[in-house]
Design goal:
This protein is of the alpha+beta class. It has two domains: 149 residues, no CATH class; 186 residues, Jelly Rolls. It has five helices and 17 strands. Strands 5-6-17-8-13-14-15 form a seven-stranded antiparallel sheet, with helices on one face. Helix 1 runs antiparallel to helix 2, helix 1 packs antiparallel against helix 3 and helix 3 runs antiparallel to helix 4. The longest helix is centred in the middle third of the chain and has 31 residues. The radius of gyration is 44 Å and the shape is rod-shaped. The protein starts with a helix and ends in a 6-residue tail after the last strand.
Length: 368
Amino acid sequence: MEAKPKIETKAIRRVSRSLDQEKNKTHFGINSLTDSNNKEWPLLTLAGLKRTFHVASVWMCSTIQLPPHVDTTSAEPVLQSSGMNKSGEMIRGAEFVPELEQEIEDLTNRRSEVKQLSHTEDHLHFLQAFRSLKDPPPTRDWTTVEVRPPSYVGTLRRSLDQLEETLNMEMEKLPDAELKRVQQYEVDVTLDPDTASSQLILSEDGKQVHDGGVVKTLPDNPKRFTNYIHVLARQSFSSGRFYFEVQVKDKTAWYLGVVRESIDRIGRTEGTPETGYWTLLLNKDGLFFRDDPHVRLPLRAELQKVGVFVDYDEGLVSFYDVEARVHIYSATGCTFSEPLYPLFCPDRHDHEGNNSAPLIISPVNQTD
């Protein structure tokens, strides 16, 4: 009658030693990580917990199993883990860590009680006490818990949104800074009546031009445009940089930019860079840089003033929406080998007076 308790006592001692070994291996599932600042973070080693709970189940007749999808190699702080409660809702790891710690503490206490009981020589006391110790402490069914590595999607999205906002703010500043830079090269431009088409009417100060609707009889002049209602500026430029602005407010069609001195003024040559024209065109179809083929450009409905900048030596012609302080288009890699003249074409108006407003050469206002 006394041999059976001794066998039971030896078995419990073996289990107790196994628990001690698991404790040394896993610290009952709680380890720590040290980050780059030598700060320790508690780490729930699920593999250690599984081993510990499995050994405890040998004598408690119960096994705590973790689901196979748990990442037991994760070295993330447990406070950053996430899981699901029994109702399927996502919870933070910090919410179930205390429960795990309580279960570990209960198991540790039970192990101590069993270990102490295993050393008793009072077989009757052993049998009486063992009845109360043979069943394991109550534990959660951890198969319903899912531990995932931390998700940084939200943090990354917020960081990217902040970066985008900062970049947008900086990008908004760039056109304004660029326009201010080119406006420093403003030149005084006036219209040359000797080049004006006979249908055009120029203001006395040489700053405005519009379609008169009637062809006038004018002296022959080889510089005059005969088939297009164009006019050039008196000033020409053969080097350096220059800039001027033209008001196009209330107009539905116009044509302006720069041209080389030797362009055809009598025929109907198509105005492209190849024939010596670097110009912007507005008509009923939209806004274009005249090329072969034309380059369609985004049109702001409130386009009222156009800035034209030329860097002769760099072969650059740029156009700006002055009021919006937005760059419209740049022709790069241009080859200039002769003087360039600003060109203006107010285009024709119809019988109802549409497009009768003039093109106006405007002084640069740095506060625009």
